Amino acid sequence: MSEDPADLSFETLVATYYQALYKFAWSLSKSSDDAADLTQQTFLIWAEKGHNLRESSKVKSWLFTTLYREFLRQNRRGQKVAPMDQEILETRQDTNLTSSVRQMEGKEALEALEGLAPVYREPLILFYMEDLAYKEIAEILDIPMGTVMSRLARGKSQLKSVLSEKLRK
Amino acid sequence: MKKERIIEILETYRRGEGLESDQEVQQALKLAAADPDLAQLHQEIKEFDEAFADTLRSLPVPPGLYQDILDAAKQQNLSQSSPRKPAKRNKILHWLHPAAFAAAAAIILFLALSFTFWNRPASSPMNPEFASDSNGLMEATAHLYANLQPAFKSRDSAQIVNYLREKGGVVPAEMPRNLSLDQSFACDVMEVDGKTVSVICFNSPTGSGKVHLFTFAKSAFPEIDFSSSPALHSAGGSASAIWSNQDSIHVLYSSRGEENLRRILDI
C-alpha cells in the first residue's frame, strides 16, 4: 500500500522532515548552527543517494540514520557506555516532576537531557521527540533492540534524577 | 521477579512494540496490574513520558532553515536530480468511488494548504506545485502532521470538547469505532476562507504512536457527496483515512502506518 519514497518531491520531503531532523540534530550537537548544517547535509545526501532506498516505509528512519552517521563522522568519538555510578530506580515517581515538566520550555528539557551520557541521551531523544518504534531506534543507532530498551530504562531513570535535582535548585 | 526489574520493564513497555510475547514482560505486567502501587507507578510513568515528549517537541526551529536547505540543494544542482523513479499511480483502495476519491483529495489538499497557512513559518515550506500534484493526497497528509501545533492541551475529554465548542469548532458527532475522546490530549480549531476545521490529537489506542482526527462541517463543501466508508492511503510510513458521517467529514492521520488506522477503524 505504501507509496514509493521517490514519488515524494524533494521540497515535500524537506518540508515533512526538516523540523524533526533539526531537533534531533540539535540534541546531538547542542548547537543551533551545527544542527542546521547537519539537517541540510542530510537532505543533500538524500538527494544524491536516496534512490537506493528500497522500502518506502523507511524514509524517516533512513533520514535519521543518515543524520546520526553524519554527526558521528563529524564528531568521531567512542560510543562506550559510561559506567553507571549511581543507577537509581525509584520505586515511586515524583508526580510533581510531571507537572513541572509540563511547565518547562523545550530548551530546558533539552538541557536536562544534555546532562546524560550520549548513549542514554540519543535513544531518549528518538523515543520522546519522534515517538519512533524501538526497532527503528535500534536501526538508527545501530544497536540491538534489547540495548535500546535497557538504555531507555537507565536513561529515563537518570533523566528523572537530573530533573529532580534541577527542580530542587 | 524483583521490583526493580518490574519497574525497569514498566519504564520501557509500550503497546505496539511486540513486547507482549516476551514472558518476562507478560509477568511484569501481570504483577503490576495486581499491585495498586505498581499500577499507579505505571500510570505516572506514562504521564511523565507524554509530558516530557510534548515539552521536547516544542523546541523552536530556525524559520529560514527550510529555504536554506532548498537553496543549498539548488546550488549543488541536487534538487533537480532528486532520486525520482518513474511515477507510480496512487494505490488508493478501489472500493472508493473515483468521484469520492477526488473529493477526498480536495479536502485533504484544502486541509494541507490551510493548516500550513495557519502555522506558516517565516519561510514557508508550502509549495503550490505540491498542492496541484495528483499525488497530493499522500504528500498533504504528511504536511498536516509536520505542521501540527495544537493550541489547547488537556487530558480531560470534557475540556477538549468545551474548547472546540467555545472556539466554534466542529465536534465529531461520533468517534471511530476504536477511538475514544478519553484518549485525547490536545486539540485546535482553525478557520480559513470561512471554513472551520477541528483537530483532536489522541494517544493511539493500539499503543502505537499518536493519531490526529481532523473534522470539517459537511456544509462547508456542499458540492461533495462523500462516502461513509473510510478511504485509506499510505505514504512513507504514514497513513490517512477519509470518510464522512452525519454532518461531518473526517480525516484520521497516523504516523505509524496503515495497520494502525485499520485497527482503529476496525477495517
What's this entry about, in short?
The complex is a heterodimer of chains A (169) and B (267). Chain A contains eight helices and no strands.
What is the fold's blueprint, element by element?
The complex is a heterodimer of chains A (169) and B (267).
Chain A lengths: L9 H20 L2 H18 L9 H16 L20 H9 L2 H9 L3 H12 L4 H8 L3 H24 L1
Chain B lengths: L2 H10 L10 H12 L1 H22 L7 H11 L22 H21 L9 H5 L3 H11 L5 E2 L3 H10 L17 E9 L2 E9 L6 E8 L13 E5 L2 E8 L2 E7 L3 H8 L2
Antiparallel strand pairs in B: 1-2, 2-3, 3-4, 4-7, 5-6, 6-7
Helix pairs in contact in B: 1-2, 2-3, 5-7
Structural features, described:
The complex is a heterodimer of chains A (169) and B (267). Chain A is mostly helical and 169 residues long. Helix content of chain A is 69%, strand content 0%. Chain A has helices spanning 10-29, 32-49, 59-74, 95-103, 106-114, 118-129, 134-141, 145-168. Chain A starts with 9 loop residues before the first helix and ends with a helix. Chain B is 41% helix and 18% strand. Chain B has helices at 3-12, 23-34, 36-57, 65-75, 98-118, 128-132, 136-146, 157-166, 258-265; strands at 152-153, 184-192, 195-203, 210-217, 231-235, 238-245, 248-254. The longest helix of chain B has 22 residues, at 36-57. Chain B is globular. The interface between A and B is large, with 76 and 75 residues.
Distance between the termini of chain A: 52 Å
The oligomerization state is: heterodimer
Mean pLDDT of chain B: 72
If strands are numbered along the chain, what order do they take across the biggest sheet of chain B?
1-2-3-4-7-6-5
The helix content of chain A, as a percent range, equals 55-70%
Sheet with most strands of chain B: 7 strands, antiparallel
Q: Output the number of helix runs of chain B.
A: 9
The helicity of chain B comes to 40-55%
- CA radius of gyration of chain B: 21 Å
- Number of E-type strands of chain A: 0
Low-confidence stretches of chain B: 80-98, 112-138
The assigned structural class of chain B equals: alpha+beta
The helix/strand order of chain A is HHHHHHHH
For the record, give the distance between the C-alpha atoms at the N and C termini of chain B, rounded to a whole number.
Answer: 39 Å
Binned strand content of chain A: under 5%
Number of helices of chain A: 8
Report the sheet-strand fraction of chain B.
15-25%
